[in-house]
Design the sequence.
């Protein structure tokens, strides 16, 4: 019989805290050897190793002294750790003293300026984007040509058809609001464009005149010829200035429009409900923010220039053609209806294709952004090839759509070219006959031909402008979708929510709360959950993975609202409280804390910077900075991160890298802890705060939390899988099947033969024998 089997036979399940190893030979140490090894161990962070050694000692097991010895060694080790960390403990104590005696950190306000509290607090529109899931199948250029051709034909049977096409563009009407502030610059740029085009359009008339001077030659008109030439030089000099001014002004206008659009879209994105982010990829949103806004501003400015130029060219060409020969004008005017029809047809096709193209581009950007930001995982799992293949597939979609757009545009351009060239052939043929009949001079026919060419160009430019405009309509729709969706942040912040005046009881109460995530409404995560966290109490949430522990923190911070029941803070339904104020009272360390790519100091004081921006009145800046510095250092002491920060050459000014990548997991957690304490919250929500800390640091962080709760009256809700953390809590709530299945102290729950005890036993088994639990 193996040692393990013998041990199991002697000690039935649950009789002792630590079960036997499932397999493998157990080292047979004597008690003396075990103790000698335990005492020889360096104390820092080794309690679990020592205890494991003792557990594996056969002699101790059979002597039945295991449990007693484990407790004895544990308390000795913890005592030793405490002695070694005395400086740390002093630091925490110093930080705590500061925390309790100092006012709020300079520049941080826990109350919203009253001026911002107005409006209907409870109004929260449920409108959500319906844009997802657009059909992609119908993207063949030929198919679209067929479908849209019929539609355009139906429209154009009515004379006002073209107008209704232009009028139906609601997205662009919304975008034009962003153009309005630039009206003055746009008018100036358009005037420059007008002047430039006028100068250009004088050339054919001048050229015609010169031809008539030289054919047949008139030597007496040489002076006039020189004058015409100098006149043209002066004219084109003016055109040159106008062209330069136009390009500069249009660039400024375009960039201003994109800047305004980007800021507004970004602000709208940040203000969305959480479910908005549940549904969308970051890369896709970034694409809307950058690519779509660029397309819109480019098209708006470039097209405006093009439209002004083409309109002026068109009007001048028509005027000159009518002056020269009404008969020939009729021939050139025949080009108008087919050009307009082609433009509208191509516009419809290109609009649909470009929307699909931007969606596909956004999907491929989202894919690339996710994989680049998760490069460590990609590298660790060796999925580079796979990701490249997936990305190639997504870019293939982009390519296909771009190709189809190219085909549609190519057909359209070719058809337009043919129509305009046919009109020129007609003009040359009929014009030559008129010259032969003596009705027109050669110079007039030359000028006429040049104006006709200009007319053709202006028409095709106008049609192109329309095509570009419809192309950008896809982007406009994607941007307007974001701009016009429910601006939740705005309505929340301006709500008539209450800001409680201290001192108030920071009591958290869940009252029969039921909740399902909006993405999966049928899957109830919490059902009738009720519990309280009293001020100064540490309540631990325990339960299997996925039982809804983190969800409770999200609901408390109002990232989501429950479908049923009520959550109260300080005795008030949190939906009646001002959300900004509520969040200022809560210190949260999320499960996977995110640090921004900035210095440690700026990450910790992030709320202070936010308050600064929102215009919280402050005192003298230097005074604020000096106090803020002291506050920051004390908070770092309290959060037990001073020791490692001091080791960095740049100290608090050390850059943490993207998502805090230049720090260890435990360091990130402690900085996130400091960040959550910076604004002196009354309620702490700690989601596995110590999961990446060694035993010593875990003990220190727990000590800080206990001090905050028991000495400062801060209410604490901790989520933990570690038994050591659960043991330190005043009360444990055990979640199972979306409800609080058991609650009580650690000792009470572990004596009961219930779910919690099973959970503890499983955890211990996993801890001591990781392989046997699998
Ligand atoms: N945004 C979301 N949309 C839909 N379902 C979600 C979302 N976030 C979490 N869930 C689901 O809600 C359930 C509870 O998740 P939660 O993160 O609260 O669990 P947990 O108890 O904190 O788990 P763990 O201990 O592993 O952190 C899980 O089944 C999860 O799949």
Sequence:
């Amino acid at each position: 019989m193996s040692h393990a089997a013998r041990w199991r036979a002697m000690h039935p399940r649950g009789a002792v805290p630590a079960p036997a190893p499932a397999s493998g030979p157990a080292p047979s140490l004597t008690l003396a050897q075990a103790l000698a090894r335990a005492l020889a161990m360096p104390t820092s962070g080794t309690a679990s190793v020592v205890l494991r050694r003792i557990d594996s000692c056969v002699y101790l097991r059979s002597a039945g002294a295991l449990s007693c010895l484990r407790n004895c060694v544990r308390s000795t080790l913890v005592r030793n750790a405490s002695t070694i960390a005395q400086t740390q403990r002093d630091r925490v104590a110093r930080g705590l003293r500061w925390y309790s005696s100092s006012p709020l950190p300079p520049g941080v306000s826990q109350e919203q300026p009253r001026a911002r509290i107005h409006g209907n607090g409870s109004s929260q529109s449920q409108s959500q984007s319906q844009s997802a899931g657009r059909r992609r199948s119908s993207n063949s250029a030929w198919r679209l040509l067929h479908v849209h051709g019929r539609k355009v034909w139906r429209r154009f049977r009515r004379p006002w058809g073209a107008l209704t096409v232009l009028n139906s563009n609601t997205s662009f009407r919304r975008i034009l609001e962003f153009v309005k502030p630039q009206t003055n610059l746009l008018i100036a740029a358009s005037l420059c464009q007008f002047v430039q085009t006028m100068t250009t359009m004088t050339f054919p008339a001048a050229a015609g005149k010169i031809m008539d001077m030289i054919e047949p030659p008139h030597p007496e008109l040489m002076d006039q010829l020189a004058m015409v030439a100098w006149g043209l030089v002066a004219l084109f000099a003016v055109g040159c200035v106008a062209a330069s001014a136009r390009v500069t002004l249009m660039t400024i206008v375009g960039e201003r429009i994109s800047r305004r659009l980007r800021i507004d879209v970004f602000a709208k994105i940040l203000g969305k409900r959480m479910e908005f982010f549940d549904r969308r990829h970051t890369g896709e949103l970034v694409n809307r923010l950058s690519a779509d806004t660029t397309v819109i501003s480019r098209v708006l400015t470039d097209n405006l220039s093009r439209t002004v130029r083409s309109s002026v060219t068109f009007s001048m060409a028509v005027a000159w053609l009518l002056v020269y020969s009404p008969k020939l004008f009729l021939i050139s005017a025949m080009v108008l209806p087919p050009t307009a029809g082609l433009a509208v047809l191509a516009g419809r096709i290109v609009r649909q294709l470009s929307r699909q193209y931007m969606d596909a581009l956004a999907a491929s950007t989202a894919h690339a952004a996710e994989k680049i930001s998760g490069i460590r995982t990609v590298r660790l799992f060796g999925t580079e090839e796979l990701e490249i293949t997936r990305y190639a597939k997504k870019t293939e979609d982009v390519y296909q759509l771009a190709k189809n757009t190219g085909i549609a545009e190519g057909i359209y351009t070719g058809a337009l070219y043919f129509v305009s060239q046919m009109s020129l052939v007609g003009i040359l043929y009929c014009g030559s006959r008129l010259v032969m009949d003596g009705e027109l001079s050669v110079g007039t026919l030359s000028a006429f031909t040049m104006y006709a060419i200009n007319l053709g160009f202006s028409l095709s430019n106008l049609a192109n402008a329309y095509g570009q405009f419809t192309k950008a309509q896809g982007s406009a729709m994607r941007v307007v979708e974001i701009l016009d969706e429910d601006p939740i942040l705005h309505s929340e912040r301006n709500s008539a929510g209450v800001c409680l005046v201290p001192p108030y009881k920071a009591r958290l109460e869940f009252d029969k709360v039921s909740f399902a995530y909006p993405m999966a409404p049928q899957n109830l995560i919490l059902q009738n959950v009720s519990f309280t966290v009293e001020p100064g109490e540490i309540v631990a949430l325990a339960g299997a993975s996925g039982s809804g522990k983190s969800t409770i923190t999200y609901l408390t911070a109002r990232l989501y609202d429950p479908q049923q029941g009520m959550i109260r803070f300080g005795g008030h339904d949190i939906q009646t409280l001002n959300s900004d104020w509520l969040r200022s009272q809560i210190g949260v360390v999320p499960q996977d804390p995110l640090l921004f790519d900035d210095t440690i100091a700026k990450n910790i004081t992030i709320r202070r910077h936010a308050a600064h921006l929102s215009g919280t009145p402050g005192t003298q800046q230097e005074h604020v900075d000096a106090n803020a510095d002291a506050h920051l250092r004390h908070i770092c002491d309290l959060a037990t991160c001073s020791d490692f920060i001091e080791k960095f050459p740049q100290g608090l000014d050390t850059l943490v890298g993207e998502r805090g990548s230049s720090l260890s997991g435990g360091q990130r957690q402690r900085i996130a802890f400091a960040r959550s304490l910076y604004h002196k919250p009354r309620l702490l929500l700690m989601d596995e705060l110590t999961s990446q800390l060694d035993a010593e640091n875990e003990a220190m962080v727990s000590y800080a939390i206990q001090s905050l709760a028991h000495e400062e009256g801060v209410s604490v809700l901790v989520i933990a899988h570690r038994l050591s953390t659960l043991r330190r809590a005043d009360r444990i709530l055990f979640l199972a099947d979306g409800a609080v299945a058991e609650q009580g102290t650690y000792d009470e729950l572990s004596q009961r033969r219930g779910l919690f005890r099973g959970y503890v036993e499983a955890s211990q088994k996993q801890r001591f024998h990781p392989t046997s639990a699998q």
User: Anything to note?
Assistant: The mean pLDDT is 73. The pocket of adenosine-5'-triphosphate is lined by residues 278, 517, 519-520, 525, 543, 545-551, 591 (CB under 6 Å).
